[in-house]
Design a protein that fits this description.
Length: 375
């Protein structure tokens, strides 16, 4: 099968959607299919052989964050040429409701189209205002996928229709085994955080407040933080006596991300909202990290209601401190949650998820062909 995949967000900035697309493309290639991905990317960004650049992206406020999207004449021209030359059996666009390459691809494509919705934002002003304009592109979509119930609800409330629920995938083998970073986790215990430090909804501020509670009572406890953002600004929010126990790695490679997840006693996902699935959570589960997570609906579902991770009240640093303390003091509980997480995340392995996506492709292609014959 010849498959074209459209990535709306720039390839050179890490993100859950980009990783989803990369892993899906590689899983499909491993299954014997021909795959091409088009994505915004800076000219000096090294790209995998299956990725085509649609030009540089620009920052656009979207879904409570700042997304880097491409949506101009140059991008439209490159998308049009890519679609024409690709002659794909099926086109798979991601986040078609965003002002991005996916929307452009929907406008120019004429064959079978599958769309995946990642966004969980029931009050999206952008989607509400632009609904009528979006419909001219979205009505061409033959099959819809949502990565979570929250994403499916967003789609239905704003755009109508329905979608097949296929969760994000995780390359579980990639995360299963790794050497911890030098000196970690250490005797005093370590809590880890992975995400954009300057994005409010990722919840780092909640974790830092919890560390103000935990730090003084646990002299050896450290925080290990990875992700893009201003390190100095983060440290300024930490009381001076605790700053030398907060280690900021900045943006890290995929290899070091796996090592980081194996370097902590507890992994914390303190997100405050806007999460439809939580790919970082699933990666931590695949690494066997004991997890403390906010009780968002999406996180609660992935963690089996608390059976595969400790939950705390979203946005409450006192409750986060309680949950972290519980795990730090109980090695047996950590081991049990680690085993439960490793087992629970297996359902999200890309070997399973990619086949589910292929089933949607095949259904759409057969359905389109049947309509063509009927006409």
């Amino acid at each position: 099968m010849k498959i074209g995949i459209v990535c709306p967000y720039t390839w050179d900035v890490p993100g859950g959607v980009q990783q989803h697309i990369r892993d899906l493309a590689e899983a499909l290639i491993e299954l014997g299919h021909t795959v091409s991905v088009i994505s915004p990317a800076d000219e000096d960004t090294p790209l995998p052989s299956y990725v085509v650049s649609a030009g540089r992206a620009v920052p656009v406020p979207y879904n409570g964050s700042v997304a880097r999207l491409a949506f101009g004449f140059l991008s439209a021209s490159r998308v049009r040429r890519w679609v024409k030359e690709g002659n794909f059996d099926v086109l798979h666009v991601h986040e078609p409701a965003a002002p991005s390459l996916s929307l452009l691809a929907c406008w120019v494509a004429s064959g079978p189209i599958v769309a995946t919705m990642h966004t969980a934002n029931p009050k999206s002003r952008v989607m509400h205002v632009s609904g009528p304009a979006l419909l001219t592109a979205l009505e061409k979509i033959n099959g819809r996928i949502a990565v979570s119930e929250a994403a499916r609800t967003t789609l239905v409330e704003h755009l109508g229709g329905d979608a097949v629920l296929i969760p994000n995938g995780v390359a579980t083998r990639r995360y299963a085994v790794a050497e911890p970073l030098p000196g970690w986790p250490g005797e005093g215990g370590a809590i880890g955080f992975l995400g954009r430090m300057d994005e409010t909804r990722k919840g780092l501020a909640v974790l830092l407040k919890a560390f103000e509670i935990l730090g003084p009572e646990r002299p050896g406890l450290r925080l290990l933080i990875a992700g893009p953002g201003d390190a100095d600004e983060v440290l300024e929010r930490v009381p001076a006596p605790l700053r030398d126990r907060v280690v900021l790695l900045g943006q890290i490679s995929e290899e070091d991300k796996v090592r980081m997840l194996h370097s902590v006693d507890v992994f914390c996902a303190p997100n405050t909202g806007g999460e439809s699935f939580g790919i970082v959570l699933a990666e931590a589960m695949a690494a066997g990290a004991p997890i403390v997570a906010s009780d968002l609906d999406a996180f609660r579902r992935v963690l089996l209601g608390g059976k595969a991770g400790e939950l705390f009240t979203t946005g409450d640093p006192v409750d986060l401190a309680r949950a972290a303390r519980l795990l730090l003091d109980d090695p047996d509980r950590r081991a049990a949650l680690s085993a439960a997480a490793t087992s629970a995340v297996s359902v999200y392995d890309w070997t399973n998820v990619a086949r589910d996506v292929l089933n949607v492709y095949q259904t759409v292609v057969l359905g389109t062909a049947a309509v063509g014959v009927a006409h």
